[in-house]
């Protein structure tokens, strides 16, 4: 049974020891802690309904290839209303459109 008077909950996160040390140093210099920074991140995520990061930056994740970055940007554009999402009436219609798009890309 949960204690309804409890003010905090615990999240366990695994990171490399050097990353933890670097983060402690960074966040201390910014006047907060790892826990404080995580709480800020979580609050921003909840207030925006998204990840408060630039996921399309190769600096964020150099392992992302150009196609992945384009897909992430398209997702962000759809979520922000910049572009509308493609909609299909059936799975058959989706697969037909997808096959046509693949064929056009390979032509």
Please summarize the sheet with the most strands: none
Order of helices and strands: HHHH
Spans with pLDDT under 50 lasting ≥5 residues? Answer: none
Mean pLDDT reading: 86
Secondary structural class:
mainly alpha
Structural domains: how many: 2
How many strand units?
0
What does this structure look like?
The protein folds into 2 domains: 1-52; 53-107, no CATH class. It is built from 4 helices and no strands. By secondary structure, the chain is mainly alpha-helical.
Features:
single chain; about 110 residues; elongated
List the helices and strands and how they pair.
Elements lengths: L16 H13 L4 H15 L17 H15 L10 H16 L1
Summary of the model, kept short:
The chain is an all-alpha fold and 107 residues long. The protein has helices spanning 17-29, 34-48, 66-80, 91-106.
